[in-house]
Structures are given as structure tokens and as C-alpha cells.
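Notebook, student rotation project (T.W.).
Task set for the rotation: take a protein with a known small-molecule partner, predict the structure of the complex, and write up what can be learned from the model alone. Partner molecule chosen: magnesium ion. Sequence and SMILES entered below by T.W., checked by me.
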Amino acid sequence: MSNALLEVINLKVYFYTLSGVVRAVDDVSLRVLPGEWISIVGESGSGKSTLAYAIAKIVPPPGKIVGGKVGFMNRDLMEFDEEAMRSIRGRHIGFVFQDPLTSLDPLRTVGDQLAEVIQVHLGVSREEAVREAGDLLELVGIPRDRLNYYPHQLSGGQRQRVVIAISIALRPELLIADEPTTALDVIIQDQIMDLLKEVQRKGASIMLITHDVALAAETANRIAVMYAGEIVEHGNTHSIINAPLHPYTVGLVDSVPDLWSKKSVKSIPGFPPDLRNPPPGCRFHPRCRQALGICTNESPPMTAIEHDRYLACWLYLKR
Amino acid sequence: MAGLGRYVIIRASLIVPTVLILYTFVFILLRVLPGDPILAVVGTRYIPPAQLEEMRRMAGLDKPIPVQYFDYLLGVVLRGDFGKTLASPVGKPVSEYLWERLPATVELTIASFIVASLIGFITGVGGALRRSSRLDTSIRIYSILTYTLFIPVLGMGLQYFLGLKLKLFYISGRLSAGIYVPRLTGLLLLDSLLAGDLSAFTDALGHIVLPSLTLGIVLSGAYTRLIRNNLIEVLNSDFIRAYRARGVPGHRVTIYAIKNAFIPVVTYMGLQIAMLLGGAILTETTFSWPGLGRFIYERIEYRDYASIQGAVILFAFIVGLMNLFVDIIYALIDPRVKY
Ligand SMILES: Nc1ncnc2c1ncn2[C@@H]1O[C@H](COP(=O)(O)OP(=O)(O)OP(=O)(O)O)[C@@H](O)[C@H]1O
Ligand SMILES: [Mg+2]
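Predicted structure of the complex:
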């Protein structure tokens, strides 16, 4: 038993496609404490969303969880059947997806969708669920008369607020937000981030998934950096941003436009590998300027280099 | 509701181009096709040229073609006059035939529609929910096969096996000799029920099964494919995943997915004009079904311009009405439709 809310251990999620096995999440371990904010950063295709789906066991076919363990609230979710998982999803783990334009059912009013999740989990009466739904809308800053609106009658920002309202309706212990602001303009982005902070302030843990390092760092207690299906570095926000060690993290942090120093933005040369056939050794070595001989054939183990600071890079191991 | 009224009027006005296009098409087709209505009636008999000219003048065929085009159209629109038959029995108002034949076609079309949607729904949903299974593969093969089916061949196959061999259903006509159903709507299934005549109802049902099955099967393949592909797409969509991530029970999620998958299908139902027209002619001919389609077929032999044009105009009008009906349903189920 640990004091962690979520404990992911050696998780492996593969997609069995016709053109090969995509190792989207490969041996990922991660821990989330109650009430903390963890941001997961990485390029497109690094397996962030797949990791999130796997935690709730909603990986779409042809994907399969092929190894590892997900511990949540001191229970082993791998042992839960579909029915038991249903009582976790929405109730204890809330989800906010990237595109608010598409994550609501276009044929049903937001009130119906909001009330439904309350009814499904609490079995309360319809009137009570609707009343609660109205309260939730107001909580996220939308007038309650919008209950009768269809999603297309709301703006993108309002829809994302509705999605958040649904995801926090049952006060889940963990809220996973997968690129919740990517589809929105900057001002709305800030408002949505404020809303998430508010959710955290009320006691929930937040897992924010993003490819935007600046956004990831904004409010996170900790940051995990994902590359090609693996977590390469993991630690508290301050140390990851100010003293990144893994060359990939260094590249990511350098790629953020810095308003103060006005130094030019560097991007990491090259492309992430094809996850059907990742390079041997460290998956980053073909793009790494500091690669050593060992990097090309042996995968660096994830190692605790200081308290709560994990790294998988040969440059800092065995040296 | 005022909005809906306006929407209905706008949609209803779309019937006009539908009718015009089809009328123009057959009008030209009839003039381009070899053969002549007067000679077709006359056959091998000898008629003096002067008398032929006289017949031609009576039928209005001596007028310039554009005049013929507008004369007929205006007659229909202004006076409800669909012209007179050129072939035997000569000079009967076409509208009498149309009035007599119309309900048969409407009844067959509705029945075929029901058959096609039922088959399409069951196979499409089944295939999508059991994607890539052996069931799904068979369903996909079925839907492709229906495209290659020729109505008379399928019709005769069904007539042979279900009709002649197993003697389950009648193979031609709408009603057995000696059975009478008082005409209210002209739809025999409905009228016999309204008259409380169960044996007439059973008889009518026994007649409509094979033709509606034939036309229904041929139309169903398109529905199968459409429903299957839409449902697969919807099942992979973000909001379905979001429903799952909220812990909404699977059977509910499936129902929401089916509703969403159905919307494009409803639009498609309105687009089957050509299939229905061609299908009705072939089906009605195969099963001696006394509807508009068979009427067109009978009259083509005689190049009976007025009869064919009238039947096509009426057919286009009915199809337009069905489209309108579908559009209204569409507007009522999809909140995104603005009206
Ligand atoms: N349904 C699927 N079938 C096959 N491969 C998939 C599927 N979903 C994801 N993948 C593959 O898994 C890998 C990880 O994808 P994932 O969506 O988790 O990445 P991500 O980090 O969330 O990217 P993004 O920032 O673009 O959302 C990718 O290589 C992707 O091609
Ligand atoms: Mg993603």
C-alpha cells in the first residue's frame, strides 16, 4: 500500500495494426499523489493519450494493455471487469478531451448529458440530477438556462466548460485533461486553465496532457516527459524546467520562446521514430547529439537520481 | 413552429425542379427513341397517309416539339389534364389510369422501403458492432451482392422457390380473383384492415411479400453499407469515447451511437429517386403488379407519349413528397438543422 492516488507500474499498451505492432506505451511507470498536479509533456505521437486511456482502461481497439499494472486508490484496476471499471470512470476518474467541439453528443442537450452522468453513478431522480446539473453549469460559469441548449448552440469555450462540468460532476479524485485547451483561443485557454486550478484547489489531482512545455509548467507540481512511448524524465516542475537533464527535455525546454532572454528558439532536429519499429537502445539516440556508444544498443533504465527525480539517460548513469 | 412551417414550404418547393427534370428527361427520351406513336398503334395495317396525318394532328404531334413540351406541362399544371391515351383504348384520359395505378405503386414502394430499412438496419448495425468478424464479412459481401442483383432475376428466383416450390406466397398481381376490397385509400393492406376483412388482408399480404422483398433486398445493400460505415465512424468518434470515459453503460452508448449514425442515412433515403423509379418498373413488370411502373412499361411499347409522361410526372411528384417527408423527419430528429 502506498500513499499515492495513482500508481502506474511498467505499463505497456500496444496497438495491433495490420502493418505491425505499435508500441505506443512501453514500460511506463508513474505516480500521482492526492491533490497534486502532474503534467505530461511530449511530442505528438509519443503515447500521452494512450497512457491516459489505459489508466481508465478505455484504449480503443486494436490497442491492448499487454503488461504492467495500474493502481488507483489502492486497488489494482487490472483486476476490475468492465462493470467495475464503469463505476470508476466518471465517478473517480474524470476525463476532459482535446476537442470540445466533438466530445459532446450533438443530438442531446448539454443538460441531458450532464444529468445523465449524475444519474448513472448516483441513481438519483431525474429532477435532482437536473437541479445538480444546473448548479454545475453555474459553477463553471455558464448560466443554468443553457441546460436546454444543444452543443452546437454554444461556443467552443462554453462547450469545454460543459465538458469540465461533466467531468467534475461527481468530484472525482483524479481529473485527466488531454490537451484541454489546444482547440481554443488564448484568452479562453487561460479561463479553462483557471477552472482546472479551481478543481485542483478543491482537492482533486490533475493530470494535464500537453505538448506545450510552458503550459505544462504553469501550475504543475511535477512534470513527466514522454518520448516515443516512454517516460524519459520525471521530477518536480522546478527542477525539470530549470535544470533539465535528459537531452530531449533540454531540447523541449529550449524550444519554448523565452520572453526575457529573447534568445532564439531552438527546435529538436529530426523526427520521432516509428513506434512499430523503434530504434534499439535509447529511443532518442538517433536525434541525440550527445549519444554514446551504449545508447545505440542498450536501453537506459529509469533511475532515481535524487529524491523524486527520475531519469533514463546513459549520460548520467554509470559515470 | 413558424420556422418549421417555412422550412417545409422551402423544402416542398424543391419538388418543382425534381418533377421538371424528370419530365424533361422522358420527354426528350421519347422523342429521341426510334419509333412513332401513330405507327405503333397502326401496326401493319394499311392506312392512307392523309388519315395518318389527321391522327397525328388530333394527337397534337404535328406541332413543333417545344410547343408539345409546354402544352403538355401546362395542361398538367393548370388543368390537371394528363392528356389522352394514344394507344388502345384510344382517347381515354390518362389521369384515369394514373388514379387507378398510383396506390399499387405507393403500397409497393412503402413495403419495399420497410423491407430495405429493416434489412439495412439489422445487417448494418450487426456488422458495425461485430466489426471484422465473420458475420461482418458476410454482411459486407451481401451488401456488395445486392448491387449486382438484377431485379427480374432475383424476382424470378424468389417466385420459383418461395412461390412455386414452397407455395408460401403469390407470384403475381395484388389480389386473388374474386376478392373485393372497397377502395378508401387504394392501399389494399390498409383498406382491407379498415373494412375488417382479415382474409382479404392476408391475401393482399401474400401478394405483396415477394415483390417488396425483391425491391427491398436490392435497395437494402446501400442501407447496409451506409449504416455499417456510419456506425463504425460514430463508434470511433470522440463523444462516444467521452461517454465511455464517463461510465455511461455500454448499451446506452450503443443507442446514442446508432442515433447519430442514422442521420446521414435519413438524407440518403431521399436520394434514391432513380433507384426507385427503375426498381419499380422492373419489379412491377416481373410480378405483374398493376402500378405506375408496369403502366410505363406497357405504354412504352406503344410510344404512348401522354401516358408515359403523365406517369413519370406523377411518380416524380410522389418521390418529391417522400423526400419532403424525410426532410421533415430529419429536421425533427437533428437539432442542428436550422429552420
Ligand atoms: N487506434 C489506433 N490504432 C493504431 N495506432 C494508434 C491508435 N491510436 C494511437 N496509435 C498510435 O499510438 C501512438 C501514440 O499515440 P497517442 O495518440 O497516444 O499519442 P499522443 O502523444 O497523444 O499524440 P498527440 O499529441 O498527437 O495527441 C502513435 O504512434 C499512434 O500512431
Ligand atoms: Mg493525444
